[in-house]
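Hallway conversation turned thread

IA: we were arguing at lunch whether anyone had actually written out Succinate--CoA ligase [ADP-forming] subunit alpha end to end. Turns out nobody had. So, for the record, here is the sequence (298 residues) and right after it the structure tokens. Reply here if something looks off.
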Amino acid sequence: MAIFLTKDSKVIVQGMTGAEGMKHTRRMLAAGTDVVGGVNPRKAGTQVDFDGRTVPVFGSVPEAMDTTGADVSVLFVPPPHAKAAVTEAADAGIPLAVVITEGIPVHDAVAFQAYARARATRIIGPNCPGLISPGQSNAGIIPADITKPGRIGLVSKSGTLTYQLMYELRDIGFSTCVGIGGDPVIGTTHIDALAAFEADPDTDLIVMIGEIGGDAEERAARYIADRVTKPVVGYIAGFTAPEGRTMGHAGAIVSGSSGTAAAKKAALEAAGVSVGATPTETAGLALTLLAAPPGNPA
């Protein structure tokens, strides 16, 4: 199994015919993703050849879904048009929309997140690398060749750290890796992914990557304490961030002691999460926990 994305997922790409859409559609296809169509009203009725795989272009998301049975959309749409693109996907009833676009205005993100939620469309992102269930499907920009299928679930605010932990733990492999994005307003949260991994019988351990700013990790810690029975390993980016300086994602805003790496680490450890000081140490903690006998955590 996997969460949110499987080998049976049928993927369309909004913005497929743009430079980024073309590049990453080719990579998704090479990873085994069943990309069944692109969406561009100005190129409707055309086809694009990707190394021998012909992908049709549709004029709208409803048309693409009706024709192909698509249940996932990946959006490579410029920021000014992202709100309209997500709204169209939600109106069409797409179950999952993966919004890769960076630089979307916060007021647009607030609006389309609420709109999609009311229509039962799960949003991943925006400003995220997407998600991958290795050996099954890849929706977004995560490199598919740095890990393999396995029994670790990964949820991360940071794209770069997603890739690093995937590589560090490549010998074990992953059920699904989800990059949720680091903007102030996102769709799928740490808690959403934790709940899904807890319910997935093929995920034995969860790696959660957070960063300074906000209180998402503290809320996740409370959820882990109350609801998660599987071992969780964590890492918080930003321990060395200079005090009083805005860094990283737009969501990495620290107010007083709230949102600091130390506060997040303390909250997670209080919930029983093993927190690494570096990504490499975090991977080592995961390996140790996976090697421990059942019922006898290391």
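OS: looked through it. The chain has a mean pLDDT of 93.
IA: good, adding that to the notes. The CA atoms of residues 276 and 284 lie 8 Å apart.
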